[in-house]
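seq:
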Amino acid sequence: MTSPILITGAGQRIGLALAKHFIAQGQAVIITYRTRHAAVDSLEQQGMTCLYADFSSDEGINTFIELLKAQTESLKAIIHNASSWDCEANNPHFEQLFDNMMRIHAKAPYLVNLHCADLLLNYQASYAKPADIIHMTDYVVETGSPKHLAYAASKAALDNLSKSFSAKYAPNIKVNSVAPSLIIFNQHDDEQYRAKTLKKSLMGIEPGCQEIINSIDLLLNSQYITGRALPVDGGRHLK
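struct:
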């Protein structure tokens, strides 16, 4: 069996699409989930390793790292996809909100990257090609966000970690980030919101998860890209 790819937060949406993509390729995958959606049961039935992980506390992060190391001795890649879209308007406990955003989006990847580098290096040593760490950041890294201040700050921290870890781990581990804007709408998004959001990019479409899959595949297949952020934003920066 090939060394697995770890995808955090893969019980739904983009993470789930990535997991299904790799399964179809015959690639071993380990996913994490916090809420056990029905899709997690389906993935387990297909032979995927699905690990519960709660990245909202230091204890939860460290417990997951121990659990992961008990499951595998090597990893081909780590895709940090776990995320929370909390914001100041919905959470008036600003101190807690800021800490949670930083812990989920920056501290958890930071600790996993440090403590699980040996798993990636084992892959590199076995296959004589670099392993990968990919951080899912956000378009707002470039612009900030007046409605999601803590979220934007934490994703910016994750973007910076991509640069630092790429320098630390080169040439054995490539470290990059993918920075999307709109990829897929939520089911509860109304038509007015959808129309307003589509106008924010030059391309004016809801691209779907395949755009992220294509971006991840590009980074995994490259032998030369590291320390970079790949924008998947439909030209939004020019609007």
